[in-house]
Design a protein that fits this description.
343 residues; alpha/beta; Rossmann fold; five-stranded parallel beta sheet; 11 helices; 20% strand; hydrolase; CheY-like_superfamily; phosphorelay response regulator activity; Protein-glutamate methylesterase/protein-glutamine glutaminase; phosphoprotein
Length: 343
């Protein structure tokens, strides 16, 4: 059965490009188009589409305001269409926090194939599990005085749905959390914006990783968009960035990060695989478990897309599956030198 899509964008030219990209996929039917949120509202009522593609910037009501109302009154899968600019990145991150499933960037002169993966993202959005969005401005981290990190390093991988999932996990970390490395599939400019957003609302310091930076308590290092993040074992564990070819279609790749953690730290690590499409991370997490590390997978009920966690679980790489609301707390428990984790 075809995925029925409504295209919402104020530019007729952009609507034509989006419709052309979508109709190249035999499993997608574009059932309508709208030039502003008011037209979109009427079209949603009349057509009941499975998925909406939504422009961030539109007249009369911007895409974010429309998305917020839509998710409150009639939640449905939305794929944002964003500009690859400094202005577009924060709006896109905010859209993902409001409940959009995914985003694509508009084509540019230097990147004319910007809509090449739009059909796949729309199909994924149609299958995604919608979750009620939560306020993200008031995290409740564990109290520092009750936590003393052991020598464990945490490694987390995520993709589609990862903005909300990572926020839920990292907002539970105390300011003196264990050194943590993260790979989230995201373009460079958007990852820079996401890191800054997380740093503002979470207790630890959250930065994009740089080659050579040592892992320190109270620091969370995110893989920059477009570069693999690995650990090296020369003396103190340090970050290393790489422009090596894509793995599982991704750079950065969760598999690359997890495999380096298994080689470098063995049992002195915890691996976590969160919501995402595909199987990136399954092999690397399996190596971590074989090396003696504890591993956690997000459960199906709370995953926006139960792809990466499923692949890892079915491979036997996951020691324990947990809902996203419990993963941050569990990580704090098992890395606390002051108390032993409760099984």
């Amino acid at each position: 059965m075809s995925v029925r899509v409504l295209v919402v964008d104020d530019s007729p030219t952009m609507r034509r490009l989006i419709i052309h990209a979508l109709t190249q996929d035999g499993g997608i039917e574009v059932v309508g188009e709208a030039g502003d949120p008011h037209q979109a509202r009427a079209a949603i009522k009349a057509l009941s589409p499975d998925v909406i593609t939504l422009d961030v910037e539109m007249p009369s009501m911007d895409g974010l305001s429309f998305l917020e109302r839509l998710m409150r009154l009639r939640p449905m899968p939305v794929v944002m269409v964003s500009t690859l600019t400094e202005a577009g990145a924060p709006a896109t991150i905010r859209a993902l926090q409001l409940g959009a499933i995914d985003f694509v960037t508009k084509p540019t002169v230097g990147r004319p194939d910007g809509f090449a993966d739009l059909p796949a993202r729309v199909r994924t959005a149609a299958r995604a599990r919608l979750r009620q969005t939560r306020a993200l401005s008031a995290p409740t981290p564990s109290a520092d005085h009750a936590f003393e990190p052991d020598d464990t390093v945490i490694a987390i991988g995520a993709s589609t749905g990862g903005v909300e999932a990572l926020t839920a996990v990292l907002s539970r970390f105390p300011a003196n959390c264990p050194p943590t490395i993260v790979t989230q599939h995201m373009p460079p400019l958007f990852m820079t914006t996401f890191a800054a957003r997380l740093d503002r609302i979470c207790a630890p310091s959250i930065v994009e990783a740089e080659t050579g930076c040592p892992l320190r308590v109270g620091q969370v290092y995110l893989a920059p968009g477009g570069r693999h993040l690995e650990l090296t074992s020369v003396g103190q564990p340090r970050c290393r960035l790489s422009d090596a070819p894509k793995v599982n279609g991704h750079r950065p790749s969760v598999d690359v990060m997890f495999a380096s953690v298994a080689r470098t730290l063995g049992p002195r690590a915890v691996g976590v695989i969160l919501t995402g499409m595909g199987n990136d991370g399954a092999e690397g997490l399996s190596r971590m478990r074989e090396a003696g590390a504890e591993t956690i997978g997000q459960d199906e009920a709370t995953s926006v897309v139960y792809g990466m966690p499923r692949a890892a679980f079915e491979r036997g790489a996951v020691c324990r599956q947990l809902p996203i609301e419990r993963i941050g707390e569990r990580l704090v428990q098992i890395t606390n030198a002051m108390t032993k984790a409760v099984p």
